Amino acid sequence: MRSVAPIGKGLHFRPTGIRLSIKVDQQNQVFSKPMHPTIAEIDLAALFRNMRRIVQRVQPSEVMAVVKADAYGHGAVPCARTLLRAGATRLAVAYPAEGAELRAAGIEAPIHVFAGYFAEQIPEFLEHHLELTVSNDEQLRWLRDAAARARRPVPVHVKFDTGMGRVGFPWEQAPDVFQRLRECPNVQFVGLMTHFSTADEADKSFAREQLLRFQAVIDAARRLHVPFQYWHAANSAAILDLPETWFNLVRPGVMMYGYYPSDEVSHSVKLEPVLRWTSRILQVKTVEPGTPVSYGRTWEADRATTVATVPVGYADGYRRSLSNRMHALVRGRRVPVVGRVCMDMIMLDLGPDAKAAPGDEVVLLGQQGDAQIDMTEFCRALDTIPYEITCMIGKRVPRVFVNEDASGSRDAR
Ligand SMILES: *Cc1c(COP(=O)(O)O)cnc(C)c1O
């Protein structure tokens, strides 16, 4: 029997947005499935093992676990707890509200907020003890004013653009930026950072060029005696392929959740997918040849066959463009999605003499027995990357946390 992760008091999984209660016995070991039939099962033990392997690979560098966007759709709070138990020393999110959510759950580790800020957001950072990222002149001015009024040093990371072309001070301006930063009272210089744009490509020459520019930024900080605690640049791709970018802190995201950032990177760290997306058959019927299925009659049976209806649709993130293009697993067999994906339902062609019944598990992404629908297949069908797939699973789909007892929990029995 799989166990379920305790999250807060009495609430044992955390659907983002909606809350359903499920029954758990006194040992927290048994759970009845949530009422909603479509779930994203999150294997905390796999997440734990992925992080252990990352920690072992990069040590003595520290690891900042990136749990932005609700841990890439996996559920930020239980994932953050597991990742910290597995050896991450810090967390990162994109926005202050995401940091506040972790604080509200009682998480005390340092939290770095990647996206910049507006002046009026700074009190929210201070209230929740979140670390800011200073990326441009306006933000530097707002920081200086807020820090002067703050009652304790404001923790900041300073971001330089070395070629990503998104946010950050231009790397050539490092000496000037550091001069101005030194004049800010009451600032704690936590990190000096940059971000790679092509570390996941086979050709690493531009990533190496970015690294040289970042080295020049670090040298300028040293010359001007700005006392940064960390220098950091490495995302998952750089962790896998560019050890010279690790410095004393790395920032893995997608790899923690079990996916390689592209198919051009090495597999120098073994990774296991953490998420399984499942539903259950709602209805089974046999249909005559020529029977049309779903909106627009884009598919009709070419033989007598069995069609199953499954309660998941584009409102759950099962994209409409998967109509007539994707497979799912039923009783360990691959079966095609037929007809248009609806808002709340899809149909599967189980074949002429299929045995299946309402309630049977349907796997949309992940393993069932020896069969699997793997992430690569999903990415190809939607012309995208694993990052977008896990983020697109909707908030109507409860995240159900399993295998917490093998995820380093001190409460594990
Ligand atoms: C999202 C993000 C990461 C993690 O990237 P992955 O490719 O998922 O490892 C690291 N650093 C920054 C600044 C990010 O925004």
Architecture overview:
It is elongated, with a radius of gyration of 24 Å. It folds into three domains: 1-35, no CATH class; 44-257, Alanine racemase (TIM Barrel, Alpha-Beta Barrel), CATH 3.20.20; 275-373, Lyase, Ornithine Decarboxylase, Chain A, domain 1. Helices cover 26% and strands 23% of the residues. Strands 1, 11, 12, 15, 16, 17, 18, 19, 20 and 21 form a ten-stranded mixed sheet that branches. Strands 2, 3, 4, 5, 6, 7, 8, 9 and 10 form a nine-stranded parallel sheet that branches. Strands 13-14 form a two-stranded antiparallel sheet. Helix 1 packs across helix 3. The chain is built from eleven helices and 21 strands. The chain has helices at residues 44-58, 68-73, 76-85, 96-104, 122-127, 137-149, 174-182, 205-223, 236-241, 375-382, 386-392, and strands spanning 39-43, 62-66, 90-93, 111-113, 130-134, 154-161, 169-170, 187-193, 230-232, 249-250, 275-280, 283-287, 292-293, 299-300, 305-310, 327-330, 333-338, 346-351, 361-368, 371-373, 399-402. The model is unreliable at 1-32 (pLDDT under 50). It is α/β, with parallel strands linked by helices and 413 residues long. Pyridoxal-5'-phosphate (PLP) binds at residues 66, 68, 114, 195, 235-236, 251-255, 261. Pyridoxal-5'-phosphate binds next to loops.
